[in-house]
Amino acid sequence: MGYQLKISARKSAQGRLVFNLFASLAEFERKLIRERTHTGLAAARAQSRVGGRRRELSEEAERTVTVAETLYKKQQPGVNEIVQRLRISKVTLYKYLRHLGVVIHSHRKAAAAKLTERVLYLFIGQIP
């Protein structure tokens, strides 16, 4: 069971003392955690260690990227089939392709462009 300080108890001198004491202890603990974190990060930097995720792809991912690029550029199997074959998600496939600088074709963009052409033809009578 924890100590529960009622709101009415904070109005008394003893209640304010206990409340401020706990608040000061919490602030002190938070500052200790922050100092330790900064000290640990500085020590890691001194040893040439960098935190975070690695920017490069693993060897297995590199192989998958190569296969994905080849299949995507052939345009024979669809994106859904490529994804199933390589056992990756569509998001991962597109991330890999962007990593290689491959231009990603979008059927939606092509369909939207055709629709725009049709609308312009209806209103203007010509396609620009």
Structure description:
- By secondary structure, the chain is an all-alpha fold.
- The chain contains 5 helices and no strands.
- Helix 2 runs antiparallel to helix 3.
- It is elongated and about 80 Å long.
- The mean pLDDT is 81.
Terminal Cα separation, in Å? 76 Å
β content, as a range? under 5%
**Level of helix content?**
55-70%
Residue ranges: pLDDT <50 for 5 or more in a row? none
Total count of strands: 0
Task: Categorize the overall geometry.
Answer: elongated
**Which structural category do the helix and sheet elements fall into?**
mainly alpha
Q: Over all CA atoms, what is the radius of gyration? A: 30 Å
Largest sheet: none
Give the overall average pLDDT.
Answer: 81
Tally of alpha and pi helices: 5
- Helix-strand pattern, N to C? HHHHH
